[in-house]
């Protein structure tokens, strides 16, 4: 509404995953190049940054959500408005990996869209000696979902930029795709799909 | 093919509405013309006159139809609506059409009907699904449609008008904790600011359309700028809100009791009865009523200008508050007694997320954070009710909260750090009970006595003040005490000496740094660096050169111990000589500075003497207590001007704050001074080493 045409494109990214897997750490590392050692559970935080994506200036909105179940009630409201998701787990904690399935399900339920831009992220890759989740296992799950799998380390900043930029690229191409056929957006598209099914 | 569609449409009107409606319509009207022609042929038998009349009528009818159909297309979006209107409007024409067509395409009809049935089913499912998804996902659209249908009353999901007061408070609540709908608060603020002296305030009616516009904006949570509207429109808005409350703000239950009480003639009894009745109304209503009454009281207070006394105002407000004017008048008469503690505070809404300037103090940030949190909770609550419009705002508010939190955290961290250093410094200060302590007690005593001894510009004034203490001490005390230090040092071993040196620095730091630091900040930085270490070298002139020399040797030899362990006595001797030279240089510089400061003191003393006569007794008293505390008599009162000027106001709070700030600054300076001292020491060491190397090179 307010935005003039000159405003760079805005991509809305949501961080999801269990508590303590490093969602905030990844976000802060990406935003401010800082690594925070002490753990403080997030309720919800949001950040905006201007970045250059393949030569084009864009804005990224990152919503860092709570991993704890306590805040699950407000999650839906956020998920609804997200355009892409980074589903984070810790490679040192199998429970967090198992939980990614629930997050994926919740996102699909809220967004009602199988092809929503989505990345599976295995964080804490610097702690390889404590690894509990194998790369093979994670890749399998990612393949089953049809999403990329990336291992990151918020501590060493390894792949941190990559996950955000990759996701933004997906969101961007998704938007271009959606805008092509008759100016209709995601919701309309899914509706149209359904209609086809009915007719057939 | 052409014939089928109207047929189908008669049975399922509106089927093609959304897709090809307008096209079909034009065809239809063609048909109706056709039918009309045929009917006229039949009518030929009856008579031409009749025919002419009828044809005219029919033509008019057809024309009307042609005009109305596209309009309908625009208006009607839901199929159900079009069903009604269509089947109702043109039965006769279609009957005629059917008859005329019957012979031509009975069979075709049947075939096509089957096909159409299938399509129809699909289409129905389509439209149903559309409806579903709309109701779920596109409440906004739905709302638009509804507001288009209902002309004046836009049906909102969660309106603010016409709902019970607690609901309105919840939906439209102030984020600063006051339990009143924002709309009431806004209107009160607006009138308080601009309208208290306006003649006929609350009596004059606003423009109805504008009031409705505002009402709708509030219902839709749109940003509203009341300053864009007339005063009368704003008052009408408030009146509308109050009038539309499902029950009177006094509650229906108690309304009749209020009427009874209002009839009591004796004022004291009436007041008492009203008070006890008001205790029974729910807190939510009471808060709102209190604010309103306080506001109306202010209106009445300006009766001379706005011509709205209690009687005229209550005549206006009676129906608005859904009670009798008598009750309102009674409430207004006793407002000051009934709601004594209510203060109208202008509502400052949470900062909009686009705002770039964040609050700076910890308190302001915390306050803003709680507002934003409250706003966020409201957004969440509304979204949980399916109010999806606000998802953008959700991100914005969330982002703003994150920003505020980050700023708060950095502020807290900074404070922690400063506290830690403060603790450290204080720990060092404690044992010698240095000047800072004295100064603290002196200034606190002065604040309590008259609250004026603390200068308005703390830094500058205090600096002077302490500088004098130091110079005094330098000139008097240092001579004796440091002489002892010096002799002690000579006797002790090298390592011990170093300890002594450090110890020596500490008392200096405690007693003199408060002075030294200020000095450094007053003077230009270059010169400022020197006064810091002043305590160390000042000793030199008084206690004889050997003392400082040895003390510095300690450090130098410490280093030389590691690097040049094989240096012979001769080398140490030369080293000592070099150091001595360096220190003498420094000494001369510092002596010149001391004399300079002394001159300044003299100037200020004379200034002070001239001013003392103008200072009132109490001030003098405080000055004397001050000076007795610090044992530096006249120097403290170096700024009598400030004192006198400050005396006039009650600045106890300000002065307290300033005092705290000052203390913090002092601590920081202490730290700096120490650094300067150490750096100076190492500087001397380096110079000595340099000289030594030069000599070595020369001898080689």
TrEMBL record, chain A:
GO terms for biological process: signal transduction. InterPro entries: P-loop_NTPase, Small_GTP-bd, Small_GTPase, Small_GTPase_Ras-type. Transmembrane segments: none annotated. It holds the Pfam family Ras. It comes from the Eukaryota. Its main location: membrane. Residues 176-195 are annotated as: Disordered. GO terms for cellular component: plasma membrane. It is an enzyme of class 3 (hydrolase). It is found in: Cell membrane. Its EC number is 3.6.5.2. Keywords: Cell membrane, GTP-binding, Hydrolase, Lipoprotein, Membrane, Methylation, Nucleotide-binding, Prenylation. Belongs to the small GTPase superfamily. Ras family. PANTHER family: RAS, DI-RAS, AND RHEB FAMILY MEMBERS OF SMALL GTPASE SUPERFAMILY. This is small monomeric GTPase. It comes from Frankliniella fusca.
UniProtKB/TrEMBL annotation, chain B:
GO terms for biological process: small GTPase-mediated signal transduction. It comes from Frankliniella fusca. Residues 25-59, 92-135, 415-427, 461-476, 486-506 have a biased composition (Basic and acidic residues). Signal peptide: none annotated. Residues 136-145 have a biased composition (Basic residues). Transmembrane segments: none annotated. Residues 1-155, 415-574, 630-655 are annotated as: Disordered. This is RalA-binding protein 1.
């Amino acid at each position: 509404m307010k935005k003039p045409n000159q405003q760079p494109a805005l991509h809305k990214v949501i961080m999801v995953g269990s508590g303590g897997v490093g969602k905030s750490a990844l976000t802060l590392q990406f935003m401010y190049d800082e690594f925070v050692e002490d753990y403080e559970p997030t309720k919800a935080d949001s950040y905006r940054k201007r970045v250059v994506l393949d030569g084009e200036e864009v804005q990224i909105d990152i919503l860092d959500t709570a991993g704890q179940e306590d805040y699950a009630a407000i999650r839906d409201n956020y998920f609804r408005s997200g355009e892409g998701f980074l589903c984070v787990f810790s490679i040192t904690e199998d429970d967090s990996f198992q939980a990614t399935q629930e997050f994926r399900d919740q996102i699909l339920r809220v967004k009602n869209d199988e092809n929503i831009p989505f990345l599976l992220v295995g964080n804490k890759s610097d702690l390889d000696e404590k690894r509990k989740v194998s790369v093979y296992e994670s890749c399998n799950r990612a393949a089953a979902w049809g999403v990329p799998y990336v291992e990151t380390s918020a501590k060493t900043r390894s792949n941190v930029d990559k996950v955000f930029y990759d996701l933004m690229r997906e969101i961007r191409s998704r938007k271009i795709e959606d805008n092509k056929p008759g100016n209709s957006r995601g919701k309309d598209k899914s509706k149209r799909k359904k209609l086809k099914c009915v007719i057939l | 093919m052409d014939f089928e569609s109207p047929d189908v449409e008669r049975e399922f009107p509106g089927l093609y509405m959304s897709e090809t409606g307008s096209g079909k319509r034009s065809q239809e009207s063609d048909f109706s013309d056709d039918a009309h022609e045929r009917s006229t042929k039949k009518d030929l038998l009856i008579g031409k006159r009749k025919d002419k009349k009828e044809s005219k009528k029919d033509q008019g009818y057809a024309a009307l139809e042609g005009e109305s159909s596209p309009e309908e297309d625009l208006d009607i979006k839901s199929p159900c609506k079009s069903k009604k209107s269509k089947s109702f409007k043109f039965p006769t024409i279609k009957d005629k059409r059917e008859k005329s067509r019957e012979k031509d395409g009975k069979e075709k009809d049947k075939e096509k009907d089957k096909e159409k049935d299938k399509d129809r089913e699909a289409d129905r499912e389509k439209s149903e699904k559309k409806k579903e998804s709309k109701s779920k996902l596109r409440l906004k659209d739905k709302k638009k449609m509804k507001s288009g249908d209902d002309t004046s009353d836009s049906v909102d999901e969660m309106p603010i008008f016409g709902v019970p007061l607690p609901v309105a408070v919840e939906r439209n609540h102030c984020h600063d904790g006051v339990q009143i709908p924002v709309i009431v608060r806004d209107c009160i603020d607006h009138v308080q600011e601009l309208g208290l002296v306006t003649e006929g305030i609350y009596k004059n009616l606003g423009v109805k359309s504008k009031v409705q516009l505002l009402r709708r904006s509030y219902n839709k949570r749109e940003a509203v700028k009341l300053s864009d509207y007339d005063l009368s429109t704003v008052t009408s808005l408030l009146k509308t809100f109050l009038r539309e409350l499902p029950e009177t703000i006094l509650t229906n239950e108690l309304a009749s009791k209020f009427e009874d009480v209002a009839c009591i003639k004796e004022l004291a009894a009436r007041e008492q009865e009203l008070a006890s009745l008001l205790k029974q109304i729910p807190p939510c209503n009471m808060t709102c009523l209190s604010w309103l009454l306080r506001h109306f009281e202010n209106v009445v207070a300006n009766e001379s200008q706005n011509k709205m006394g209690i009687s005229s105002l209550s005549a206006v407000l009676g129906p608005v508050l859904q009670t009798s004017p008598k009750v309102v008048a009674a409430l207004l008469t006793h407002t000051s007694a009934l709601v004594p503690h209510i203060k109208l505070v202008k509502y400052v809404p949470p900062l909009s997320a686009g705002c770039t300037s964040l609050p700076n103090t910890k308190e302001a940030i915390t306050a803003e954070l709680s507002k934003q949190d409250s706003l966020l909770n409201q957004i969440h609550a509304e979204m949980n009710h399916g109010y999806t419009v606000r998802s953008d705002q959700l991100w914005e508010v969330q982002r703003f909260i994150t920003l505020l939190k980050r700023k708060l955290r950095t502020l807290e961290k900074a404070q922690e750090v400063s506290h830690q250093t403060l603790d450290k410094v204080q720990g060092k200060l404690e044992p010698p009970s240095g000047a800072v302590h004295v100064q603290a007690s002196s200034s606190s005593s002065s604040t309590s006595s008259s609250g004026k001894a603390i200068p308005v510009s703390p830094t500058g004034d205090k600096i002077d003040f302490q500088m004098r203490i130091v110079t005094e001490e330098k000139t008097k005390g240092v001579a004796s005490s440091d002489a002892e230090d010096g002799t002690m040092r000579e006797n002790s071993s090298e390592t011990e000496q170093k300890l002594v040196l450090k110890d020596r620095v500490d008392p200096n730091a405690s007693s003199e740094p408060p002075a030294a630091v200020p000095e450094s900040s007053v003077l230009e930085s270059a010169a400022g660096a020197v006064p810091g270490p002043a305590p160390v070298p000042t000793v030199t002139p008084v206690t004889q050169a050997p003392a400082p020399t040895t003390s510095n040797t300690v450090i130098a030899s410490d280093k030389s111990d590691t690097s040049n362990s094989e240096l012979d006595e001769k080398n140490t001797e030369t080293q000592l000589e070099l150091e001595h030279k360096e220190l003498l240089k420094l000494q001369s510089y510092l002596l010149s500075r001391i004399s300079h400061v002394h001159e300044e003191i003299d100037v200020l003393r004379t200034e002070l003497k001239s001013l003392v006569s103008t200072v009132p007794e109490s001030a003098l008293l405080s000055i004397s207590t001050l000076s007795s505390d610090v044992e530096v008599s006249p120097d403290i009162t170096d700024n009598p001007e400030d004192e006198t000027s400050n005396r006039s106001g009650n600045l106890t709070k300000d002065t307290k704050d300033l005092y705290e700030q000052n203390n913090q600054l002092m601590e920081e300076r202490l730290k700096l001074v120490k650094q300067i001292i150490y750096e100076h020491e190492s500087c001397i060491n380096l110079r000595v080493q340099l000289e030594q190397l030069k000599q070595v090179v020369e001898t080689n």
